[in-house]
Amino acid sequence: MKRAAVFAHYDKDNLIDDYVIYYLRALKSVCNKLVFVSCCELSEKEKSKLIDIADFVICEKHEEYDFGSYKRGYLCLKNNGILENIESLIFSNDSCYGPLFELEPIFTKMDDSDGDFWGITKNKFGMRRHNDKYVVCVRPHLQSYFLVFSYRVFNSNVFDHFICGVKKEKIKDDIIINYEIGLSETLVNAGFVSNEYIKAFYRFNHVILSLWRPLVVKYKMPFLKCSLIRLVNKNIATIAGWKSVITKHTAYPVELIENNQARTLVCAFNKYTLPKGIKILCFNIMAILPGILKRKASCIVKNYFPCFTD
């Protein structure tokens, strides 16, 4: 099957990290054309890392986050007449380490399944604006770190109108509502059928964060969120023992994660943390709580029991 991919990149230090190169090489192995779109002003030295990988390189500060890069990559493929000659279009970004497992078997499975577009995971819940407040509600949508669209979808007027309409949003939550959630809802409302590679834990929210461990071990989840390793999500999940999990169950080179973590860690590790087993048990229980209780539990851990965090 002929495929093209758009990869969205951002780095606070204007670098193309080694984990990104690893991801891109794996992605290029399953697609014919690859567009690399960075929301950074990259040096020629950094761009030279892409010479034998990317067919097109776009570096442009746009402040439209990943969907702004997806838009630019899509238009590049469209304007160069490539969309007419492919069967699948991939949107992916650098918010994950991976792939932890080979991508081709995933595509083989999903290409043979029902659906006009698919992702790795699907969230049952989302947000909605109500009286200038953001309310959590049931809004099923594919998570946008990895999306695949069939020819029928990416050559439709509905898709073109949606992607070309991406613009800068002042509030990050509006990006999630308007674009991540909005894309799935727009396509489903137009009659297209969605599908997801991993269907486990759908009744829980944000499983890619809170249940990352069983996803990798039991369901061969191909990606690990960078925000976990950078301790962005330390109040809702623990990464205790992450290295042994990845080493034991995947062939992914963990030094790529370690090197990136050393440069991008958001906060220092907790010196007064509890044993690994207790932390894992605590956060596994939190992961299956209803949304409201999960948020309250996270606040309690943050404010009163920081010893549970990494």
Describe this structure in words.
With 310 residues, this protein is α/β, with parallel strands linked by helices. The chain folds into two domains: 3-196, Spore Coat Polysaccharide Biosynthesis Protein SpsA, Chain A (Alpha-Beta Complex), CATH 3.90.550; 207-308, no CATH class. The protein is built from 14 helices and eleven strands. It has helices spanning 18-28, 44-47, 65-79, 104-111, 151-154, 157-164, 172-189, 207-210, 212-219, 226-229, 242-249, 254-264, 276-287, 291-304, and strands at 3-9, 33-38, 56-59, 88-93, 96-97, 117-119, 122-130, 133-142, 146-150, 194-196, 224-225. A seven-stranded mixed beta sheet has the order 3-2-1-4-9-6-10, with helices on both faces. A two-stranded antiparallel sheet has the order 5-11. Strand 7 and strand 8 (133-142) form a beta hairpin. It is globular and about 55 Å long. The mean pLDDT is 95.
Keywords:
Spore Coat Polysaccharide Biosynthesis Protein SpsA, Chain A, 7-stranded mixed sheet, two-stranded antiparallel sheet, 14 helices, globular, alpha/beta, 310 residues
CATH class of the largest domain: Alpha Beta
Strand order of the largest sheet: 3-2-1-4-9-6-10
> Kindly state the mean pLDDT as a whole number?
95
Task: Give the CATH topology of the largest domain.
Answer: Spore Coat Polysaccharide Biosynthesis Protein SpsA, Chain A
Beta-strand proportion: 15-25%
Please provide a brief summary of the model:
This protein is 42% helix and 18% strand.
